[in-house]
Amino acid sequence: MTTAELALPLPDLFARYHVGWETRDPELIASLHSEDTVFHLHDGSDAVRGRDALRQHCIDMFARFDFTHEVVRTLYCDDHWVIEWTMVLALEEPGGAPFTARVEMLDVVTVNARGEVTRKDVYMNGAEAQAAFARAGIRR
């Protein structure tokens, strides 16, 4: 498959997809994934499989964590994009003092010819994530 064969140009699909994450909209995010999608946050947890499971995963994640995105760069290929970004997390120390944590992230997102996300692999800077969650008293 080439970019020209996609139902929507890859940068346009990314822009639409990114809106879902920026607005924390599980319905929009899930609607852009294939029925048999795989979402894998490489933090030791199991991959999420299927559109409905992804929707619920997003609902749970957005309820648990308050974070925003700072895009560093996005690279487009024929059937996938790679986005380097920084997750900015609003957290609290166990005593209640708020703090902001920054974690470097990298996503590899594969799409099919219909323009559906078939797989999203998310990699995080483990040392930064571990330090942030430890400071907040969160065990992962």
From TrEMBL:
One family name in Pfam for this protein: SnoaL_2
Q: Which InterPro entries match?
A: NTF2-like_dom_sf, SnoaL-like
Q: Where is the SnoaL-like domain?
A: 16-119
What protein name does the entry list?
Nuclear transport factor 2 family protein
Q: Which organism is it from?
A: Sphingomonas cavernae
Q: What is the lineage of its organism?
A: Bacteria, Pseudomonadati, Pseudomonadota, Alphaproteobacteria, Sphingomonadales
